[in-house]
Specification:
Layout lengths: L1 H4 L11 H35 L2 H27 L1
């Protein structure tokens, strides 16, 4: 990504190209780390909230079982063609 996307934001007239590249790269890494950390924390809280709900767990099991069953039927029908 760095070699294909970031060079368009680098201007040789504004100083050292290497320092601009490093600044943009580290900025992207810092923002990605922040966003991923927030997603991790949100997912953890959501998992803890939903884990205490037995109705949700049963609904999730039935839903996933149905999805996997439909996928199996679809694969079996494709194998017959």
């Amino acid at each position: 990504m760095y070699l294909s996307l970031l060079p368009q934001f680098i201007n040789p007239l504004h100083g050292n190209v290497l320092s601009q590249s490093l600044l943009l790269g580290f900025s992207q890494i810092a923002i990605s780390l922040l966003v991923n950390t927030l997603l991790l924390l949100l997912a953890g809280r959501m998992a803890a909230f939903l884990a205490g709900r037995p109705l949700f767990l049963q609904l999730q099991r039935w839903l996933m079982g149905g999805v996997l069953g439909l996928m199996a039927v679809h694969l079996a029908r494709q194998g017959q063609r």
